[in-house]
Amino acid sequence: MLRLSRKYLAFLLAAMTFLAVPSLGNADGVMDKPVNLKVQVLPIGTSWYMFGATYSKVLQEALPAQSIVDVVAKGGGVANIIAVQQHKADVALANLISTVWAWNGDKDVFRGKSYRDVRALAGGLNSAWLTPCVRAEFFEKYHISSLDEVFTKNIPVRIVMKPKGATVVTLAYKLIESMGSSSEKIREAGGEIIHVSPEQAESLMRDGQADIYFEAGMPNHPTINSISLTTDVVFPELPEKFIRDCEAQGLVLSRMPQCFKGQVKPLSSFDMGTVLLVHKDMSDDMAYFLTRIVCEQRDTIAAAHKAWEDFIPDQGWKQANTGIPLHPGAERYYKERGWM
């Protein structure tokens, strides 16, 4: 059975009453005994959580009776990779950027340690851009109009973002450091960096207790949407120096479409991408099954959150979308479909 806390279950039922998930049968004979799976995503209120909840539901429909699928509503694009590597999660979402950092043992993010026991099932699941959301009142108060000025003029800024372990947090710190600033310098100037859940971040921005919110933005992102509808905010461009620093590390600049109140034009940013991961030791049959479900139930998953409409199943195998090698079971699925 699908196991969720009461809080998560209530949210899931409210969000998914409109979904009619077609029966997929008993895993197509891939397995005939109950299985236990942990699917690690992000906290409630995020698009990743909606993916995890919906994906787990369609898995439950297809797995043998008495199977258990746990939705682990924590982690992030960095932490989830470590969870899979350490067998603390069976399946997880991560960012394309993070998988490359993990595989190469990025000295800043993974302290030089390589995580090469993870394998991809599908990439290109959705786009997620580094998105700075700023209270308009903050810019007006200090007579500034850019992020460069925030960090070079030692303005007492209150920054709010997810707990550490999320890829967007890593990129936000890289931005701050590229501007010659740091957590310590921000505190010395009278500001602070606050790590909280998306729901708390929304409340802090709305109540004027935070000035900048960094998020992995995408069309219809629930937290950014809510903030932009209840607070007068602007979406500034990323600093040029930060852009150059990231491009030197191999990141590719792209355009986030105009999709939020207060966003006056498409935003030049870095698309972090989204990848579904498992451990290399997972059986080929299970990896094949998990890949089949995410590809063939793409429309069901997209119905839960529009961000997942970006996923094109026949492109899910490409390394440009995964950043790391495929699991052999996933590779078998793509080849059987004639996509690879």
**What is the CA–CA distance across the termini?**
34 Å
Strand order across the largest sheet: 1-3-2-4-13-5
Spell out the helices and strands N to C. EHEHEHEHEEHHEHHEHEHEHEEEHHHH
The profile of the biggest β sheet is:
6 strands, mixed
Instruction: Compute the number of helices.
Output: 15
Which band does the percent of strand residues land in?
15-25%
Q: Structural class of the helix and strand makeup? A: alpha/beta
Integer average pLDDT: 89
Oligomer: single chain
Outline, from the CA principal axes? elongated
Low-confidence stretches: 1-26
User: In percent, how helical is the residue content?
Assistant: 25-40%
CA radius of gyration: 20 Å
Task: Count the beta strands.
Answer: 13
Describe the structure in your own words:
The protein contains 15 helices and 13 strands. It is α/β, with parallel strands linked by helices and 340 residues long. The strands form three sheets. Strands 1-3-2-4-13-5 form a six-stranded mixed sheet, sandwiched between helices. It has a five-stranded mixed sheet with strand order 8-7-9-6-10. Helix 12 crosses helix 15 (328-336). The protein is elongated. The relative contact order is 0.18.
Give the helices and strands, then pairings.
Layout: E1 2-3, H1 6-16, E2 36-40, H2 47-62, E3 68-72, H3 79-85, E4 91-94, H4 96-104, E5 118-123, E6 129-135, H5 136-142, H6 147-152, E7 158-161, H7 167-178, H8 183-188, E8 192-195, H9 198-206, E9 212-217, H10 222-230, E10 233-234, H11 240-248, E11 253-256, E12 267-270, E13 275-279, H12 284-296, H13 298-304, H14 319-322, H15 328-336
Parallel strand pairs: 1-3, 2-3, 2-4, 7-8, 7-9
Antiparallel strand pairs: 4-13, 5-13, 6-9, 6-10, 11-12
